[in-house]
Amino acid sequence: MKSWKKIFCSLFFAFFISSTFSLTLDSVVSYNSVHYRGAVMFNINEQSQVCQYNVVSVIDSFLYIQLNIIGLEAGRALLTPDNILFINKLQKKYYNGDYSVFEKILDIETDFSMIQDIFIGTPTMLPEGLELSYQTDSLFFEYPFFKVLNCEYDTFSLQLEVKRATFNAVPEVNATIPKNFTEIEIERENE
Description:
Layout: H1 2-18, E1 33-44, E2 47-58, E3 62-69, E4 72-79, E5 84-88, E6 93-97, H2 100-106, H3 112-119, E7 131-136, E8 146-153, E9 156-167, E10 182-183
Parallel strand pairs: 6-10
Antiparallel strand pairs: 1-2, 1-9, 2-3, 3-4, 4-5, 5-6, 7-8, 8-9
Helix pairs in contact: 1-2
């Protein structure tokens, strides 16, 4: 039962961590928000899955991620400076808590600022063992931003392609917990 928790957390963590860190991006962000979407291919323990994703990042406020598989919403996440909400629509489960979930499941300490900095391309540090490579296209977007990202972490790999990005326009996001969903209780794997 705990293996799906680790995969779910790994999936979102690797997606959060890998989404916008780039050595080629400016260290000063000249936009207030970015909304981007595209396709992502996950490889977890040698099992592949292709998803469509939608990301909204508002500087110093929130990160919102939605994943769709074959046109059906698989899950969404909303991160704020104080809280993380993961909603797994396929299993009708959710996690609503703090950033200690990353330490409990993956032995990685992080917070909203670290994840936000990675999403806007101004990271100050990365977790040990995370390998990233990028393809950028300065003509593709109005601000410096990546087009393709490859990420490897532990038994997880990801290739994310940005198909469309909009800056300084925030679409409406919804991260309410649906009725009849069960809360995920997360504890350390070795407990």
